[in-house]
Amino acid sequence: MGLHHYAPDREHVRRALGTFAAGVTIVTTFDDDSNAVGMTATAFTSVSFTPPSALICLSLSARTHNVIRTRGRFGVNLLATDGQELCDYCSAPGGDKVLPVMWLDTKSAWNAPCLNSAMVFFDCQVTEAIETGTHVIIIGSIKAIGLSAHRDSTGPLLHFRGNYRRLSPIEPGTSPDPLPIVFEDSLIMEAHQQ
Q1: Are 72 and 112 in contact (CB under 8 A)?
Q2: Number of structural domains, the chain?
Q3: 157 with 24: CB under 8 angstroms?
Q4: In terms of pTM, does the model score above 0.85?
Q5: Burial level of 173, CB count in 10 A (0-12/13-18/19+)?
Q6: H-type helices in 18-152, by residue range?
Q7: CA-to-CA distance for 74 and 140, rounded, in angstroms?
Q8: Measured between alpha carbons, how far is 76 from 55 in angstroms, rounded to an integer?
């Protein structure tokens, strides 16, 4: 069977990256008029536990990118499987997507807009921005976290090969034994013990 070899042109790069299943997020900030705005993004990951930080990757042409760079704050809202409508709203072409107040958690003192339907929310302050090609990597220091107690039984909204997906358990006995996971801290402790 094997893999076919392709040049890294735009079509094949998009196709290849689309095979990486990713959680769907809404990246939020406040615009110059203090409106809550959001955009759909799948390029999000943790950077460090100490200090707690995460990154997002945005197109340099996205208006939200300019607002985040100016304001210095952003939020990352991890969506549950019922977040498809919100995701579609924030990913539609056009101007900034102003978020209706009824979608926002207004009870807490967040520095970036928090969606009341989010499974998890990261309230971040920009610490670094690295431009590369058509995109910018924005690293943020996590200043606060919102965890939803009523969302524990709900799975995350995923994007894979251009479509929304949801997690489903692998039937017992159909997968190989799990790989051992070793955390960096464990490796450091083992090195000091030797």
Answers
A1: no
A2: 1
A3: yes
A4: no
A5: exposed
A6: 63-71, 84-91
A7: 8
A8: 9
Instruction: Give the domain range for residue 68.
Output: 10-169
Whichever domain contains 55, its CATH number is 2.30.110.10
Name the residue type at position 63. Answer: R
**List of residues 6+ apart from 36 with CB closer than 8 A:** 28, 29, 30, 98, 99, 101, 104, 113
- Per-residue pLDDT tens digits for 87-141: 899 988 876 689 999 999 988 889 999 999 999 999 999 999 999 999 999 999 9
**The token pair that represents 178 in the structure block:** 């799990």
Omega of the bond prior to 51 within 30 degrees of 0, cis? yes
Write the single-letter amino acid at 179.
L
Residue 4 identity: H
Residue 1 pLDDT: 63
Domain assignment present for residue 191? The answer is no
Mean pLDDT of the region 79-89: 90
Strands ordered across the beta sheet of 163-165: 22-23, 158-160, 163-165
